[in-house]
Amino acid sequence: MSTERFRLVLVSAGTSDPSSTQLLADRTADRVTALAARHGHEVTTSGIELREIAADISTALVSQLVTPRLRQAITALGEADGIIATAPVYKAGPSGLFTSFFHVLDNDLLIAKPVVLAATAGTARHALVADEAMRPMFAYLRTLTAPTSLFAAPEDWSDPALNARIERAARELVLLMESGFADRIKDEAWQSYQHEYGSAGGTETAIDLDTDLMRLATGGSAT
């Protein structure tokens, strides 16, 4: 197997410093890096701490203005080969900061990208949030979510079962990145997706503007 270089991006919505949410992301990233190295690959890791761009996310939500800091985060995700997305749980769901960030992303940005979903909470009662609340949103964004999701309540950090799940999720992510599935979608099947007008950050260039429907949509008249 040839050596590959993967770009791994950690998205953390933790609001404290230090943050258990960030800790879970870091621990998972460490295992991804180690497992990839066993396969002869290199992993470059970068992080997006959403608390640092909270104002930028709010601005984008209400005005569609993308600030330079938010654009930098979006670019990092667009170039990522794998993503670890971690959120604290509030009111039985992922934090509003977490969901707001993914709400402002272009719907085409993450198509087929491998993602590990992870959540932290103060009680084990929220253990299904990653699968019941986060996974549907990432399905809408058409990502390739790893089968194993992660969850950590305070009592889990000393439980070997958490490390076992991290190991499994990390291995799944490495295998998904190795598959190159996202790149193959772009190369071979991109046109088979229904793209929204103006989607894909301007990379969807096959939209035919010279049709009756598009002339009407832009304020003209049909011929």
* Mean pLDDT reading: 90
Task: Summarize the main sheet.
Answer: 7 strands, mixed
Uncertain stretches: 200-207
User: How many H/I helical runs?
Assistant: 8
Q: What is the share of helical residues?
A: 40-55%
Beta-strand fraction estimate: 15-25%
Spatial shape: globular
Which value, in Å, is the CA radius of gyration? 19 Å
Amino-to-carboxy terminus distance = 57 Å
Class from secondary-structure proportions: alpha/beta
From N to C, what is the helix and strand string? EHEHHEEHEHEEHHH
Question: What oligomeric assembly is this protein in?
Answer: single chain
Quantity of strands, as a count: 7
Give an account of the 3D structure:
This protein is an alpha/beta fold and 223 residues long. Helices cover 43% and strands 17% of the residues. The protein is built from eight helices and seven strands, in the order E-H-E-H-H-E-E-H-E-H-E-E-H-H-H. Strands 1, 2, 3, 4, 5, 6 and 7 form a seven-stranded mixed β-sheet that branches. It is globular, with a radius of gyration of 19 Å. The protein starts with a strand and ends in a 6-residue tail after the last helix. About 4% of the residues have low confidence.
